[in-house]
Amino acid sequence: MKKAVFSIIALCLIGIQGSFAQKKYEANWESIDSRPIAPWFEDAKFGIFIHWGPYSVPAWSPKGTYSEWYQYWLQSKSLFGNGKFTGTEVYDYHVETYGPHFSYYNFGEQFTARNFDADKWAKLFADAGAKYMMITSKHHDGFTLWPSKEANKTWGFPWNAKDVGAKRDLLKELEVAVKKTDVKFGTYYSLYEWFNPLWKKDKEKFALEHTHPQFKDLVENYKPDLIWSDGDWSAKPETWHSPELLKWLFNESAVAESVVVNDRWGDGARFNHGGYYTTEYQSELDGSKPWEECRGIGFSFGYNANEDSWDYASDRTLIYLLLNVVSNGGNLLLDIGPDANGNIPPIMQDRLLAIGDWLKVNGEAIYGSRKWERACQWSKKGKKDWKPEGAHYLPADFILKQTIDPEPGYGVREIFFTKKGEDVFAIVPKWPKETLVIRDMKATSTTEITLVGTDLKVEFVQKGKNLILKVPNLTPDELPSKYAYSFKISNVVK
């Protein structure tokens, strides 16, 4: 009898899985938005963004701006970001450095990637504890890291890494290397291109005759686990025919049943349609929908030789940023900018490896976790959520002001929380002195508390609504990790 019951259950499960796999999506947002996001994405928590292309050759823009926008700054003589600008800074730099007649398109030949070693990159991503990565297969300048016939056709000259500069299919090399690891392979893809002649002449024709076939070529030949669309502000989804493109992706493509996508599919789609929600140089969302915050280790996404060491976020800052995002139910997509030769700057490698070291100890509190009933515990005194005034993009060090270095009159996030099953993790940005008071948490008769990364059991008492941990007296050398420490608390109630 038991065998029969188990057989029926198994058949039902197979039927459910089969119906999910066979579901056909329609070219409308109601249908597209009904597609679930693969659970592995919410479990991943940490990914690595890579901006790499011809803009990596000049590798320059004023501090507080994106160097990967070099072509746009150059040709439009405009600039925006954090700071005050005349608008001509990049143009003036370009003329002084390369001369007035040197075209941005000449950087394609100089984008040699001669030191690029895909296996070394992939190993770094894995050692950093990242569960996925995302590379700019094509940014807004239209240059592709793979041999795209559409790129050459609409531009009227070779404009891809296989035909100029590197003379290699850089995307394929990276795909092969990453797929040897447990890291998921993702491709960033810009829907539009600033100065493409066809885009400037006929936007809808550009979408249907350039973007759609190029996108399909990318998907079919490189089979990404994730697709990070961008350039969404430039036209409505109807102009891009995004629902039709996503219908093809989810029904007919080689990755139909597995691919994860974001929300940038046309002006007005972000935070409303598509897949997971994306923020950029922001703080946090409420976690009601899978989401991801992206930002650079420095300020720029692309490599910017104009940035100094102090312009890069410290490993402490990056770990706190990760905690803030994960405690709110999101993923952190942290960007690096390799140089034109394919070298990842040592300072970026150092930061990634520091995160990896922290995750080796505290990963249990991060990977696979979800948002608890509250993301953090604020100090009792002081205003919450300090932010700098007048910044277009939120600088990384805001999180230091909200944790260990508050501005006068402001409180701090004393504890970050995550949950996994019946366990709650209380992660503190600095080691407590003698006791740690967690407000509005009640232990049960089966509650146990351990210090993650050790075999130490932590004593505790319940005082009213507060759970008070008697923190062990450890020397700096005895602490399991640097900068933040995780307490695993089992079987508690509100």
TrEMBL record:
Gene3D superfamilies: Glycosidases, Golgi alpha-mannosidase II. PANTHER family: ALPHA-L-FUCOSIDASE, ALPHA-L-FUCOSIDASE-RELATED. One of its GO terms (biological process) is glycoside catabolic process. Residues 414-489 form the Alpha-L-fucosidase C-terminal domain. It is an enzyme of class 3 (hydrolase). The keyword Membrane does not apply. InterPro entries: FUC_metazoa-typ (IPR016286), Fucosidase_C (IPR031919), GH (IPR017853), Glyco_hydro_29 (IPR000933), Glyco_hydro_29_N (IPR057739), Glyco_hydro_b (IPR013780). It comes from the Bacteria. It comes from Gramella jeungdoensis. Residues 19-364 form the Glycoside hydrolase family 29 N-terminal domain. This is alpha-L-fucosidase. Keywords: Glycosidase, Hydrolase, Signal. Its EC number is 3.2.1.51. Belongs to the glycosyl hydrolase 29 family.
